[in-house]
Amino acid sequence: MQSRQRMFSSAMRLFLRWFRLCPRRGRRRAPRWLRELWSYNRLLLKSLYFNTLTNSDVIMDCLFEPVFWLVDHLTRWFGVVFVCLVVILTSSILIIAYISLLPLALKTYSPAWIAWHLCYGHWNLVMIVFHYYKATKTSPGHPPQMKCDIPAVSICKKCIIPKPARTHHCGICNTCILKMDHHCPWLNNCVGHFNHRYFFSFCMFMTLGCIYCSISGRNMFIDAYNAIERFKSLDAEKQGVPVTGVGLLIGILPPGSVTGQSYYQTPPPAFTFRDKMFHKSIIYMWVLTSTVALALGGLTLWHAVLISRGETSIERHINSKETQRMKKRGKVFRNPFNYGRLNNWKVFFGIEKRSHWLTRVLLPSGHAPYGDGLTWDYCPRRKDMMAI
Ligand SMILES: [Zn+2]
Ligand SMILES: [Zn+2]
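A: This is the predicted complex of the input protein with zinc ion.
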């Protein structure tokens, strides 16, 4: 019995050895040149898309690249349309103010109120026009294209030039912008180091102008709205409203008035085309200025918060990500360009002495911003804090 088991086990061992050796003998290996060609092509294919820095953000950017391309090109071409829209809408409000409101104010207001409206309205208008013109026409600033000794923090992949701190590439302008905040389609220009103050001042004075129009025209809007409603009812009556079912009124109404199935009321007094246009223009002005005041007011407040923190819109995004990253490491991120709330505003408006708050903020001023936008003073920081 034991000898049979030994024979069986030795036979199985031989079979397993044969089974291990058999595939090697039977496998037909591809020729060496074919294997080399295969591995070369595989390496070539991987080299086309392999990136050690690849993450979900890079993949999403690649997938959405056609969408970004389309949006960039549309924004570039529609920039002129947006600028025309700003000019047309602002001009329409001005025309209404000068043709409809000013004569009425001169007739009905007291001299003190007339003086206030004339002074404030024209000052606000000058500030809006000046800052809008400067924001659209002033170049935001670009880094030098040639090699220089300016300290750079990275290389722009599209321009292939060194990028100084706070510089970012604008896909719509297709160039690098110093201290880039964002590309504004309403200006058809990038908001950067040299025109950031003009952009913010334009937003601020446009919001103030819209709030001024909205508040001072509130009662006129209510009157105009009621008048338009009255016009509508009178128009309906003028066309003739057939009155049916007057059977119950037989005997109450004068004889002859219920002879037919319908009759027409007395024609209303005539309202001129000028009256209607006046009231409609008041409604248009109030709705437009109130809407812009709300929308632009929110944007202006957000930019005011960013300026208080010493950040641009792009840096807000980067800094919030960096804050989260540092928090995971048990460190605190500190913005190196935050010089303190008041100092940030002084740097932003270029305030060097007290009188500049009047001459450089509340009056039109074309002074250059602090610094050249290429090098920046870093706020001193503690050792346990990290900054990019
Ligand atoms: Zn660039
Ligand atoms: Zn741009």
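The chain has one domain: 57-231+272-386. The first strand starts at residue 154 and ends at 155.
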